[in-house]
Amino acid sequence: MVINIYDTTGNLVRTLDMGFQSFGYYASRDKSAYWDGKTETGEQVSSGTYFYQIHAHLKSQAGDYTETRKMAILK
Q1: Which sign, positive or negative, has the C-alpha torsion 53, 74, 26, 24?
Q2: Which residues make Cβ contacts (< 8 Å) with residue 53, sequence separation at least 6?
Q3: What is the 8-class DSSP label of residue 1?
Q4: In the chain, what percentage of residues exceed pLDDT 90?
Q5: Are 11 and 18 spatial neighbours (Cβ–Cβ below 8 Å)?
Q6: Which residues lie below 8 Å from residue 34, measured CB to CB, with a gap of 6+?
Q7: Are 33 and 15 in contact (CB under 8 A)?
Q8: Which residues of 7-73 form beta strands (DSSP E)?
Q9: pLDDT digits 0-9 by tens, 42-60
């Protein structure tokens, strides 16, 4: 599973490669997706709206799964 984070202009801010994750509920940080609010180069992002896109390759007949959602960063 890969999670891409974009700013409002569509620029890629960060990519989180989660590797293989089975479906389910993850309450601990080591098993869940966690973004520290930094870019690929380690710079802290500013407050504002961002979009995250989850892309997972499913081993079933369903094929690939992609979903995009909005989030807000507040400081």
Answers
A1: negative
A2: 3, 4, 5, 6, 66, 67, 68
A3: -
A4: 52
A5: no
A6: 16
A7: no
A8: 12-17, 48-57, 64-73
A9: 999 999 999 999 987 766 6
Query: What predicted TM-score, i.e. pTM, was given to this entire model?
Result: 0.77
C-alpha–C-alpha distance, residues 20 and 14, integer Å: 19
Give Cβ neighbours of residue 22 (< 8 Å, ≥ 6 apart).
Answer: none
* pLDDT(30) > 70: no
d(CA 25, CA 9): 31
pLDDT digit string (tens) for 4-16? 999 999 999 999 9
Q: Which residues of 1-26 are buried (b: 16+ CB within 10 A; e: fewer)?
A: bebbbbeeeeeebbeeeeeeeeeeee
Name residue 34's beta-bridge partners: none
